[in-house]
Amino acid sequence: MTEPVGPALARALLSRELRTLRGNTPAAAVAGAMHWSLAKLNRIENNKVTIQPLEVEALARHLGVTDGDELKRLVDLSLASRQRMWWREKHFPDELINFIAFENDATHLYAYQATFVPPLLQTRQYAEALTSSVLQTSPEDPAVVSLVDARMKRRETLMARLAGDQPPSVSQAIDESVLLRPIGGDDVMAAQLDHLVEMAGRDTVELTVLPLRLGVHPGLSGAFELLTFTEDRDLDVVFIETPGTDFLLTDAENTATYRRVMDELLTMGESLAEAVHKVRQAHRPQ
User: Fold this and answer.
1) pLDDT higher than threshold 80 for residue 171
2) Residue 46 has what DSSP assignment?
3) 118-129 per-position pLDDT tens digit
4) How is 168-195 classified by DSSP, letter by letter?
5) Residues facing 227 on adjacent strands
6) Which of 244, 259, 221 is nearest to 95 (CA)?
7) Domains of the chain, each with CATH number or no CATH
8) Are 103 and 156 spatial neighbours (Cβ–Cβ below 8 Å)?
9) How many C-beta neighbours within 10 Å does residue 243 have?
10) Reduced to 3 DSSP states, what percent helix, strand and coil does the chain have, rounded to the nearest 5?
11) Which candidate, 98, 90, 45, places its Cα nearest to that of 227?
12) How far apart are CA 49 and CA 8, in angstroms?
């Protein structure tokens, strides 16, 4: 590996490469040779489980890999995939945990939100007010605190990456109604708008606002977050959060649809700074 990667991306890359190495050899034959169940090999190749470094080396050798550097690269991927990161300590649904893990490595972070500020762009006070309202409990409730803490950790990680040598790109589209909804009250919303303007001024951050005058647009089908990776277009990940069940989409055919929607939304919007200015002008005391 030329650059370090986190556990989610490492596991995805490793599972893909092991499946490629197997080629046309029947899975049952490889599983038998490794003294594994067919189910175990299927889980490895479908990115459902991690695989120990010794097993990776043995499997790679069985599949014809003899080059020492290539074996080391595959073993390094296995080691990276087994790192224990902070999000694994959280008792969240698997879909959210896996999405946070991928987010840590994404090259480009996209999102569309129609009802509230995208998670990575929220201030703590805004996140507390929003989450306590959604969960219909107080901001001090442990469930609220846990979710907000995780959201702030995600934001902290993003800010650190943006300040690094290889910052990710961030492209997010927000419906104008989000700016008009004073979640947490006027003071909290004012601070949130300030933060959005500050973020929009960063070199690798693109924030756009879809004005209400547009009427219909592709984002009306629902909010989502999309992650892409320079390593491979087929590694795209989409996260959809709902009041009941969250969804993590990794199938290339499905994620390609969200790529197209996101591209269109980013071309339809207007400058976030201009939109915030209009909101503040409209609410200025006469």
Assistant:
1) yes
2) T
3) 999 999 999 999
4) PEEEEEEEHHHHHS-TT-HHHHHHHHHH
5) 109, 237
6) 244
7) 7-81 (1.10.260), 86-282 (3.30.870)
8) no
9) 6
10) 55, 10, 30
11) 98
12) 10
Contact 59, 34 (CB under 8 A): yes
Helix (H/G/I), strand (E/B), else coil: 91: coil
Strands 169-175 and 205-210: parallel
Cα separation, 255 vs 259, in Å, equals: 6
- With a CB cutoff of 8 Å and minimum separation 6, the contacts of 68 are none
The secondary element (H helix, E strand) that includes residue 210 is strand 205-210
Distance, CA of 286 to CA of 275 (rounded, Å) = 20
Reading the block at residue 37, the tokens are 């169940």
| pLDDT 10s digits, 50-65 | 899 999 999 999 999 9
Q: 164 φ, ψ to 5°?
A: -85, -175
Q: Which of 270, 154, 165 lies closest to 212 in space, CA to CA?
A: 270
